[in-house]
Amino acid sequence: MSEVEWDRSLRDAARDLAADEIGVLLVVRRRSAIGIVSERDLVAAVAAGLDPDDTIVEDAMTTEIVSVDVSAAVTTAAEMMLEAGIRHLLATRDGRPAGIVSIRDVLAAVLEEHGPGNDGTGDSRVPRGPGAA
Question: pLDDT-derived band of residue 93, with 50, 70 and 90 as boundaries?
Fold first, then answer.
């Protein structure tokens, strides 16, 4: 699990995301988790006109961390992501950060369980979301 200190610049956070090829960093202050900063947060900050060199992570991070225990079922994680409209969950063990679960992790687990092209229902068509033609 990659972390970034709360007082680092948004550019530093973007570099960390790119270097580690990940989409979210746990934001820490004095070794305690205080939020997350995601690609979405960085894009929103730049779109709002914030300078990535002069803006610290704390000013753009998401403070409401949605977490799931590492013992939870993958369907629980998927439901939580869908309900919250997010792509990352903080995985916890005994209430402490243990990692990040991404939507890719959830999809990989579903494919591993059901196999590619088989959702277990006999109907493997892609659902049509809002705006689909």
Answer: very high
